[in-house]
Design brief:
NAD(P)-bd_dom_sf, alpha/beta, 284 residues, Sc_DH/Rdtase_CS, seven-stranded parallel beta sheet, SDR_fam, Rossmann fold, oxidoreductase activity, acting on CH-OH group of donors
């Protein structure tokens, strides 16, 4: 892992420790499992906290073994692994930067060595840095945001695709900002637009192989991403209040969308985006 990259990301305290948040995000699955992912192996990036942790917990409850990919928050990743194991499933933690193609190749090789196969890839990891003016976005930040948010998805799929068979699923995390825009998240929103286009195009590319590709576009969700530097203090004061529901969402309100798209319930869906966003109506 490149220490310079880690230091740069941590300029805003990112990715951020979930254990430091108050109140804590709700990650716990809300219902008993029904075996919808029994015998499956899922690779989830950014699974140490936030939406990724909630997805890992729900996937494990539904019968999947989970590879937890994360950047550097080892305590959070260890807790997610414990959550998976408490559901009776196997967990593998792998630390590194998904913006590094070699790391993605090594990580997928480790997953195959450990579990023997991959059935679901969840491209969830992302970063954001608020800037009030486009001239405030440094060249380094611009490159870094794209490297994590969209290059990392390309690298993960390139590494995983030789191991995906008919019936496999890829679920990407885009954002409501792709549809609404965000005046303080110009580079982040641009990457989310790229992710939506990537999802639709990758679906066209893989659907004949029986591999489905879909995405989830969350609205404002209470995770470490925003309070640990991904939003301005002014934005945090009213975080989520501008949604029709008048509040931010919780990770366990988003995870079921990732489950639906990963399992056979969504067998006739590919190239689509689900919108757990608090009631905001978008065209897409």
């Amino acid at each position: 892992m490149n220490d310079t990259v880690i230091d740069m990301i941590h300029e805003d305290a990112l990715p951020g420790h979930e254990s430091a948040l108050d109140p804590k995000p709700d990650w716990e699955p809300r219902y008993p499992g029904s075996g919808r992912l029994a015998g499956k192996v899922a690779v989830i990036t950014g699974a140490d906290s936030g939406i990724g942790r909630a997805v890992a917990a729900l996937y494990a409850r539904e019968g999947a073994d989970v590879a937890i990919l994360y950047l550097c928050e080892h305590d959070d990743a260890a807790m997610t692994a414990d959550i998976v194991r408490q559901e009776g499933r196997k967990a593998l933690t792998i630390a590194g930067d998904i913006g590094d193609k070699d790391f993605c190749t090594r990580a997928i090789a480790e997953v195959i060595d450990t579990f023997g196969h991959i059935d679901v890839v969840v491209n969830n990891a992302g970063e954001q840095h608020p800037d009030k003016d486009i001239t405030d976005i440094t060249e380094e930040q611009l490159k870094r945001t794209f490297q994590t948010n969209i290059f990392g998805m390309f690298y993960m799929v390139q590494a995983a695709s030789p191991h995906l068979k008919s019936g496999a699923a890829i679920v990407n995390c885009t954002s409501v900002t792709m549809y609404q825009g965000s005046k303080e998240l110009l580079d982040y929103s641009a990457t989310k637009g790229a992710i939506t286009a990537f999802t639709r195009s990758l679906s066209e590319n893989l659907v004949s192989k029986g591999i489905r590709v879909n995405a989830v576009a969350p609205g404002p969700i209470w995770t470490p991403l925003n309070p640990m530097g991904g939003a301005t203090p002014e934005k945090l004061e009213t975080f989520g209040e501008d949604t029709p529901m008048g509040r931010p969402g919780q990770p366990n309100e988003v995870a079921p969308a990732f489950l639906f798209l990963a399992c056979e319930d969504a067998s006739y869906m590919s190239g689509q985006v689900l919108h757990p966003n608090g009631g905001t109506v978008v065209n897409g």
